[in-house]
Amino acid sequence: MTVFFKTLRNHWKKTTAGICLLTWGSHWLYGKHCDNLLRRAACQEAQVFGNQLIPPNAQVKKATVFLNPAACKGYKARTLFEKNAAPILHLSGMDVTVVKTDYEGQAKKLLELLENTDVIIVAGGDGTLQEVITGVLRRADEASFSKIPIGFIPLGQTSSLSHTLFAESGNKVQHITDATLAIVKGETIPLDVLQIKGEKEQPVFAMTGLRWGSFRDAGVKVSKYWYLGPLKTKAAHFFSTLKEWPQTHQASISYTGPTERLPSGAEETPPRPSLYRRILRRLASYWAQPQDALSQEVRPEVWKEVQLSTIELSITTRNSQPDLTSNEDFMNICIEPDTVSKGDFITIGSKKVRDPRLRAAGTECLQASKCTLLLPEGTEGSFSIDSEEYEAMPVEVKLLPRKLQFFCDPRKREQLLPPSAQ
């Protein structure tokens, strides 16, 4: 034993390296073991639902999964889905069909052909989700098809909506299994959608919103400075200030204010009355005085116009912090001041990469249900719509309140919905 310790002391460098390697290996193995325990617990919970009996005349629920294998760096999304989500879905008793997308925009085209599904599941990031909801809402039968609930399994580099739907978790496996179990449990909440339409193209739909400005432009260049490690974010914003300063974006925006929220269920089509009631209603309308038809005046929409000079403009939904008890529906138009200093630009911009909801001091926020953004002729640059890049152009943005139903963690649903709706 003395010889053993003497050898360790004489070769202390190798001993230190060996201890470090052994510690790291033990920690890695323990992490893998914990991940396996999480998967097993989630599968056991899903199997409880799969073992439930269904009536003889009922059909098995059909789920269609749109999987983007390229959603994560190194094409790891497919592995993450197959190890952490697929077993849970199959054990839950659903008839699961997995559709792997091969190129950008394919999900939109596939949604045009999709039929006979009870659940739509998006396995990817913000870009994949945006493609799927755009495909759903561009369909001719979108009024009925958009009622199909949507599940979101966060596999991408940016998965903004996951913070609304599921509990925060630093463990990737835990986050994916929680999202998949939320689909199995079947609890949903309604979320807003933005319809964004250019002059010529078909409308694009967004769950988060639109960004246009210098913070966005610097943020998309962060990956170019990968060799600077943790300093890459600040470097991207610093080099952005060297090209041009101050960085201002000129535009004109017209908007109309919030709309009154209809009571739950008011948007649904009531059942058709009987023939007897329809005849009575027709006779009553025939004998009614003409002025009765004019008694209900339609309130005209009041539009306001703002000329803006800003470092960044964002038009966003309230899906990051939905207020399902509010009496009004609106989107937020945030105009950040063009007087931001270079130091603040670097500091705030670096934080915005992690949390785009942050705003510079002095930001003006407007509430609107519709707006029209007009850009000066010859304007260059790009928008970010749900983290996807689009050419900057004049657009019309319209809020579609509570348009889509998303599966969410039951605990999150309890926090968001009023007690009367639970």
TrEMBL record:
Compartments reported by the entry: Mitochondrion inner membrane; Mitochondrion intermembrane space
Pathway assigned in UniProt: Glycerolipid metabolism; Lipid metabolism; glycerolipid metabolism
Superkingdom of origin: Eukaryota
UniProt entry keywords in alphabetical sequence: ATP-binding, Kinase, Lipid metabolism, Membrane, Mitochondrion, Mitochondrion inner membrane, Nucleotide-binding, Transferase
GO molecular function: acylglycerol kinase activity; ATP binding; ATP-dependent diacylglycerol kinase activity; ceramide kinase activity
EC category: transferase
GO biological process: ceramide biosynthetic process; glycerolipid metabolic process; sphingosine biosynthetic process
Official protein name in the record: Acylglycerol kinase, mitochondrial
Organism: Crocuta crocuta
Gene for this chain: Agk
